[in-house]
């Protein structure tokens, strides 16, 4: 199970997110049409009990949102946050729970033609 693909499936299931980015959500950039979302996994850990490994794992993913304006990227960040807020469900074949991480950073490139927002989420799955 990939937390990356579980997150992509959860975002594609949100009409609010897809109204903004259509199907431009993936593990790599889809090209030069914006806005889009790139999801990548930062960590993956299994929980271990005192005497055995449990069936729970947790991964941290970063969701990078890109758009042509600051307003558009902020609207996309709100849509992503709403789509994953306390989200539970079966994604990528696993039972998943999404929780917002603490990292949430925005920036732009030098000529201000692309605005980005990067947010971390924890995906606990079994």
Automatic annotation (TrEMBL):
Record-linked InterPro entries: Gp17-like
Protein name in UniProt: DUF3168 domain-containing protein
Biological source species: Methylobacterium aquaticum
